[in-house]
# Entry
Amino acid sequence: MPTIRQSIDHWRAAFAAAGVDSPRLTIELLLAHVLGLERGALLGMGEHELTPVQSAQLEALCARRARREPLAYLLGYWEFWGRRFAVRPGVLIPRPETEGVIALAKKLLPPDTRGWAVDIGCGSGVLAVTLALEFKQLRVLALDLHSMPLQVTAENARAHGVASRLWMARMDGLAAMPPVPLFDLIVSNPPYVTPEDYPGLQPEVLDHEPQAALVGGKAGLELPSRLLAQIARIAKPGALVLMEHGMEQGAALREAAQRAGLKDIRTEEDYAGLDRILVARA
# Structure
């Protein structure tokens, strides 16, 4: 049976040849997953031989990754805001840029904030669950048009101990909500990829992640702009609005927010210095 070192050397080269990002990190994460260890525990285990069952499991997972199946789907989890969240095919894999929504909420709201927050298009629930964890008095509603995201969000809410303060509903944006001021915080990472850009995405995204969670209609702005109009109808006066968007969409979404009647509108940059999050008040 191969040793851990031999497995790392073999699959690192195979992943590099297949165009997989971070080939060594990838094989180490898959190895740790198969062995039931944290990645750091592999250090000093280079001569440890895999069992036949472990070798077969690793071979199957690595072959799928070499075909560009997303690592997060193979592992069944991904990290967000320093925590581990379950992910499944059918939900968008969390991106580091989306952590900016949480960072801004913590910057702009006191930790004892009460009332209701809503996460529109919850995906795996990373925003909804993290808000419930970071704001202990907040109640959170997670919305999505599809059933799988709601199932995964529920799983993550239970795993992180916030299921008693997190509710879910299957809904197209806020279309079914009555026009009654309800929410103190509105967050969303809506679909914002343009139809023109979508075919050029990496195979991991194009072939595996749900298109409905990525493509935002004409110019990538149709769905986000529609959501802003809906948000303005049901946000409490002064409610904080945080919406992730594409790096070239800041000006257009500021205009859409202004047309919707929102106030104090600005754009925040992500870690790379690119326009990424619309910030506004109702």
In short: The chain has a mean pLDDT of 96. The chain has ten helices and nine strands.
